[in-house]
Design brief:
The complex is a heterodimer of chains A (266) and B (347). Chain A is an all-alpha fold and 266 residues long. Chain A has one domain. Chain A contains 11 helices and no strands. Chain A is elongated. With 347 residues, chain B is an alpha/beta fold. Chain B has 2 domains: 219 residues, P-loop containing nucleotide triphosphate hydrolases (Rossmann fold); 116 residues, 2-Layer Sandwich (Alpha-Beta Plaits), CATH 3.30.70. Helix content of chain B is 39%, strand content 24%. In chain B, the strands form 3 sheets. A 6-stranded mixed β-sheet of chain B has the order 6-7-8-3-9-10, with helices on both faces. Chain B has a 4-stranded antiparallel β-sheet with strand order 2-1-4-5, covered by helices on one side. In chain B, α3 packs across α4 and α5 packs parallel to α6. The relative contact order of chain B is 0.12. Classes of the chains: A mainly alpha (266), B alpha/beta (347).
Chain lengths: 266, 347
């Protein structure tokens, strides 16, 4: 390549008349995150494999030992697992956010005349959709492994909607972890804290079966009411839904400003 | 080119602190439009912080910075519309094709779909990426990736291109590709601010050089100005026998009164010569008396390396940053390849 071969600034590149709008730029940020996810087999396949392994282990390995039999246990833990699936896929969100910062993509975005909100919104929208993909795959395998709806299809869909909403909430939480971490490995490590909340909750066994000293944490941490609300909806009631939504709103209210601030830090 | 009256960059008392550490410590700088400006300095001098502040990624703790008249804090969006940032980390998305990367960035500059396609196509032509534009960037060579990154900063037709260590980590062919692209852009009228610790890079590309150290500008001017301002010419001797290097160094020290620089394991010895041709004659005589035969000896203008060392080494007094010039002092000024290695290993 010689200097002569490179034209001077080409006439076709004009200066945009105005900075991009929030919707359009969010869509571009989202599209890029989705392309990265679905063009990296390690990312989209990992969600599927992890879910299948989890369902398989709890249904066929632990399930037989659990009181009431494996098929009834499937009805108990599948809704719990689907509700908390974002806690397992969230590590990927934190890592992606940390990598974008370390790799310079976040810096590039911040140097562009892009509304700051679009950077958070586009990322969150992409993670909401990838989490939705994990949820749908898991639900399909859940049915395959013996899960059956106790109530109507409408109740089931309401429960599904609540699970998707949790995805949106925790996406922002993991985004903040990714922004706070100095690098991708640290982000991965930090996101492990979610496992504590996932396991010490009513997701896999009722909190009442845990030792007395552990029960207060299991009962009052946000995941338990969130999981219980999903089970209630499937059964046709709305117990715990209010509390679950309150927790969701509180987490969003705390972590969204932190995410915006974290991105502003550059 | 737009009006020349507004400076490209105007920094006054620009300070950026991280806790107690001042990355920029009262930097003053004025650079006119229409030039390629190189910011030189050892690692930790504040080069990257300065670029990040120009790019509105870092808010100044105090002081002011204007880019083409726009304040980086109060008028950040106007600054962002004027600049294109390409960095030491090529911020391209590896799972997207070159064309997809460029169109995305064009949209994020504010282009509509059709204009984004046109801008991407034009930049692909401009940077010679036509053959690889349809491939995912993951498969690009280092030079191609860096050119794509450069292209992404161009799709919004920025008036100022910011290049933070644009060739760090590239092989010589990759560096050459980026240099050619930068030269062509400058010739086409884009103002360019680049940081580098490769002195030959500044020598090749820049109209004006600002040397910063400890967060302040310690010198600025054209490359020629800087070389002239360092004043003293340099006596350089290339020995026939490398084992006599130390002996030659002693002759140089005795005659010039200055600490000579010896090419470790090589045949080259240099020393600044305040006394000009008279000292050269004395050195030639001294070497002959000591029975040291030389292949080449002469008086020349200092290289940018030597100017840089004189400027930053003198100020570096014992802090962590002093390591960089000290390390460089052990490497021969004339041998750029060796200097690059030293830089690479210190990163």
């Amino acid at each position: 390549m010689t200097t002569e071969a490179i034209a001077a600034r080409p006439a076709a590149v004009t200066r945009p008349a105005a900075p991009p709008g929030v919707i359009g730029s969010s869509a571009e940020v989202m599209r890029r995150a989705l392309l990265k996810y679905f063009r990296t087999p390690g990312l989209w396949a990992m969600g599927v494999v992890q879910s299948v392994l989890f369902l398989f282990a709890f249904r066929y390995v632990f399930g037989g030992y659990i009181q009431g039999g494996a098929s009834r246990y499937a009805d108990f833990f599948v809704p719990g697992y689907v509700a908390t699936i974002v806690l397992f896929t969230g590590g990927g969100i934190a890592v992606a956010v940390a990598e974008d910062r370390a790799g310079g993509f976040t810096g590039r975005l911040l140097s562009l005349p892009v509304p700051r909100l679009s950077i958070v919104a586009g990322r969150a929208a992409a993670d909401f959709l990838t989490n939705g993909w994990s949820i749908l795959v898991t639900v399909a395998f859940g049915f395959l492994f013996g899960f059956r709806l106790g109530g109507t299809v409408t109740d089931g869909l309401a429960a599904l909607g609540l699970c998707l909403a949790y995805g949106a909430v925790f996406t922002v939480v993991f985004m903040v972890m990714g922004l706070a971490a100095p690098n991708a490995q640290a982000a991965q490590g930090m996101s492990m804290i979610a496992f504590v909340f996932a396991f010490i909750s009513s997701t896999y066994v009722p909190a009442s079966t845990m030792p007395g000293w552990l029960q207060p944490f299991a009962r009052y941490q946000p995941i338990t009411p969130m999981v219980d609300a999903v089970r209630s909806l499937i059964a046709g009631s709305s117990g715990d839904v209010g509390l679950a939504l309150a927790w969701s709103a509180a987490l969003l209210a705390i972590f969204t400003p932190l995410a915006v601030l974290g991105y502003r830090r550059g | 080119m737009t009006t020349q009256s507004v400076p490209l960059l105007e920094a006054r008392g620009l300070t950026v602190r991280f806790g107690k550490v001042a990355a920029l410590d009262g930097l003053d700088l004025i650079a006119p439009q229409g030039e390629v400006l190189a910011i030189l300095g050892p690692n930790g001098a504040g080069k990257t912080t300065f670029v990040r502040t120009v790019a509105t990624l870092q808010r100044p703790t105090s002081g002011h910075l204007r880019v083409r008249g726009h304040d980086v804090v109060r008028d950040a969006v106007a600054v962002r519309r004027d600049i294109g940032l390409a960095g030491q980390f090529a911020a391209v998305e590896p799972t997207m094709t070159g064309r997809e990367n460029l169109e995305m960035t064009a949209r994020l500059f504010g282009h509509g779909r059709a204009a984004a396609r046109r801008a991407a196509a034009a930049v692909i032509d401009q940077l010679g990426l036509g053959e690889v534009a349809g491939r995912r960037a993951a498969g690009y060579s280092g030079g191609q990736r860096r050119r794509l990154d450069l292209g992404a900063s161009l799709v919004g037709a920025p008036r100022l291109l910011l290049l933070d260590e644009p060739t760090t980590g590239l092989d010589p062919a990759g560096r050459r590709e980026v240099w050619d692209a930068v030269r062509a852009l400058a010739a086409g009228g884009t103002d360019i601010l680049l940081t580098t610790h490769y002195l030959d890079e500044a020598d090749e590309l820049a109209d004006r050089v600002v040397v910063i150290d400890h967060g302040r500008a310690v010198a600025s001017g054209t490359v020629g100005d800087l070389k002239a301002s360092a004043g003293r010419d340099v006596i350089e001797a290339v020995l026939a026998d490398p084992s006599r290097l130390d002996a030659a160094g002693q002759v140089l020290r005795r005659v010039t009164g200055a600490q000579p620089r010896l090419e470790g394991g090589g045949r080259r010895a240099t020393a600044p010569a305040a006394g000009g041709a008279g000292e050269l004659a004395a050195v030639i005589g001294g070497l002959a008396d000591a029975g040291i035969s030389v292949d080449e000896i002469g008086l020349r203008r200092p290289t940018l390396d030597e100017v840089f060392l004189a400027l930053t080494g003198a100020q570096a007094g014992g802090t962590g940053d002093a390591e960089a010039p000290a390390q460089r002092a052990a490497t021969p000024a004339a041998d750029h390849a060796t200097a690059h290695l030293a830089n690479g290993s210190s990163r």
